């Protein structure tokens, strides 16, 4: 049975934590991940794994609560709605270290989008954390990354599920793609609470930012618009993902419903990672069963 995998990890905010569960299930079954490509949260999880620091990252991330995550996001009040993220990515650098992509043990690609050149940018060399940060720079939410005269934002703007880099990985026997923006499923709707139905940004204001009423109202309006912008981007990503898979069909597709959590619910780490592993079990069981049947048919044909 084939074991070498080119792994493709899609965008989706906190839903991308599900990638952790998929990686763990692949490795537990003896699959060898020989290449990884990702956009946004997929670039983060894939990069941390490629650097050999996934366990350390998970140990830290599992302890984060809602308020601690907000502190790490480092919201800039001088530029309403823009998250600097310096504290967050500095903490990730402390975990991973100063690592260059070309020094990783497997080929790795982080996909970003250049607003300047109006095209995809594939990071396959250079500083790993810088590549991850560019790939995660959600427009109107995170500050863009300025680099070599270009303004770089979230790779999901153009390619939320970067299958093309995986297809170029000659050492892989099959491509496994993880889409964490699958169609919503009723089983997960009951997990929402009244607090979670509020806008991320409204909740942030009420919990963390002490402002005068007039200032707070103005900032709340700006942040509410950003929430709408994020939902619009997710809709675009879903359409782009279907388009990309029409051109590059993965051998195995692990689909996680988008209502597994909200895009900002990083404090639900263990729950979302477990859900990702459950979906990987389903997809791999189905593929392995079909692969076993195919081997039997080929054996009978030879007889």
From TrEMBL:
A motif (GXSXG) lies at residues 38-42. PROSITE patterns: PNPLA (PS51635). The keyword DNA-binding does not apply. A motif (DGA/G) lies at residues 154-156. Pfam families: Patatin. Keywords: Hydrolase, Lipid degradation, Lipid metabolism. It comes from Endozoicomonas euniceicola. Residues 7-167 form the PNPLA domain. This is Patatin-like phospholipase family protein. The keyword Cell membrane does not apply. The active site is at 40 (nucleophile), 154 (proton acceptor).
